[in-house]
Structure formats: structure tokens, C-alpha cells
């Protein structure tokens, strides 16, 4: 069973030291709104891959392509602002450490910041992700293990204030993809316990801060 260090939204200074090397995991999973240097450090110190989606406070990563070690934007070499060596799963299907991830980063649109989407825009992105997952399943017979998002589904762990409303389209995405897990950040518990929620065969978990998880 793959084992992961799952992080989101809140930096744990204890992990941003060499002490993290005592943690034994197979990968790092980031659910958004963390310094990209932090993600890169964790992956490098642990010598494991890092898969992530951007949050609404993260830099815009759209428009970048990567070929080998070279990053390009608009046809020209450009420094990628994401975490060194990180795998951006936003609106993508990626296989990492034996797990299949489907990713949808960002939050509901509430100002002009990056990585923000209206309900309609995120629904369009979700439909594209579902098409890719179905095609991949047809090719190799494998289902999605983890739906990795920054925001939660609407009315499942979100908040009533506009910046923290969840996405309605995630309900349909869960229904079609039937991932074992939906991992999200964005909603800070502020010390309160946050129980997992279960929809069908999918377990929804708020991973703000850090957790060690076995899949």
C-alpha cells in the first residue's frame, strides 16, 4: 500500500527541517495554498515524487509546458514557478507511486486572483477530466484512486461565506469516477475535529495541515 505525506494550506515548520527525513513515505501530495518551495523541499528531503493541485493563493501555472528538464511558455523557455520536480495534476490524470490521481485545483471565483473559477467554469473543467478518465479506463481498465482538489464539494465540508463555497460539479465527478478518496484543503478547521464524509464508495477528507495516509 502506498503511503503518503498529505499537506495543504498550513505550513508545519517542523516539517521544513531535516527532521522530516525520519518520515517514511512513498510520495508527497499537496492540495494547494502552500509555498512551492515547501513542497519542493519535502519531496527532495524525502526523495519521493510530489503530486499537487494549485490553490487560490498559489501562482498561476497555466500555459506552461515541460519537455524533459526544459520549461516553456508561449513557445519560449521560461522558469516554471511551480515546485521543482512537482507533478501538477490540475485538470489532469496522472499516475504516481502506484496511484491514479484526477486533479481539480482552485476555488470558487470571489475576486480577480489566480486559480479561481465560477461554478460553470469548474464544471467544464470537470467534464474534461471525466472524459480523460473514462478514456484511460477503457485503455487500461484502471479506475481513479484519488480525486485531488483544493476546494470541497458544495455542502460537503465547505463554508457559507462566498470565498469558501464548494463546487457543485464535484458531486457528479464523484458519482462518475467513484474514486476511493477525495482529498481537499481550503477549509481551515481552526483546531476543530473534521470528520470524514462518505459519498457512495468515496471517502472525503479535509487535509489542511499535514497527514500521513496509507492508500
UniProtKB/TrEMBL annotation:
Annotated GO MF terms: hydrolase activity
Domain Calcineurin-like phosphoesterase: 18-189
UniProt xrefs under Pfam families: Metallophos
Protein name in the entry: Metallophosphoesterase
Cited InterPro entries: Calcineurin-like_PHP, Metallo-depent_PP-like, UPF0046_metallophosphoest
Amino acid at each position: 500500500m502506498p503511503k503518503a505525506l498529505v499537506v495543504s494550506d498550513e505550513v508545519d515548520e517542523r516539517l521544513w527541517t531535516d527532521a522530516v527525513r525520519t518520515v517514511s513515505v512513498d510520495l508527497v501530495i499537496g492540495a494547494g495554498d502552500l509555498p512551492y518551495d515547501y513542497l519542493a523541499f519535502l519531496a527532495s528531503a524525502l526523495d519521493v515524487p510530489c503530486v499537487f493541485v494549485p490553490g487560490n493563493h498559489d501562482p498561476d501555472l497555466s500555459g506552461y509546458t515541460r519537455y524533459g528538464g526544459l520549461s516553456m511558455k508561449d513557445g519560449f523557455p521560461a522558469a516554471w514557478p511551480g515546485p521543482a520536480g512537482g507533478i501538477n495534476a490540475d485538470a489532469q490524470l496522472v499516475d504516481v507511486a502506484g496511484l491514479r490521481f484526477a486533479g481539480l485545483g482552485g476555488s470558487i471565483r470571489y475576486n480577480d486572483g489566480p486559480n479561481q473559477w465560477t461554478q460553470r467554469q469548474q464544471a467544464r473543467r470537470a467534464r474534461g477530466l471525466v472524459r480523460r478518465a473514462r478514456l484511460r479506463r477503457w485503455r487500461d481498465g484502471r479506475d481513479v484512486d484519488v480525486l485531488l482538489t483544493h476546494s470541497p464539494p458544495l455542502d460537503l465540508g465547505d463554508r457559507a461565506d462566498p470565498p469558501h463555497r464548494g463546487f457543485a460539479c464535484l458531486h457528479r465527478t464523484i458519482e462518475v469516477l467513484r474514486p476511493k478518496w477525495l482529498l481537499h484543503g481550503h477549509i481551515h478547521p481552526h483546531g476543530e475535529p473534521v470528520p470524514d464524509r462518505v459519498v457512495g464508495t468515496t471517502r472525503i477528507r479535509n487535509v489542511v495541515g499535514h497527514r500521513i495516509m496509507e492508500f
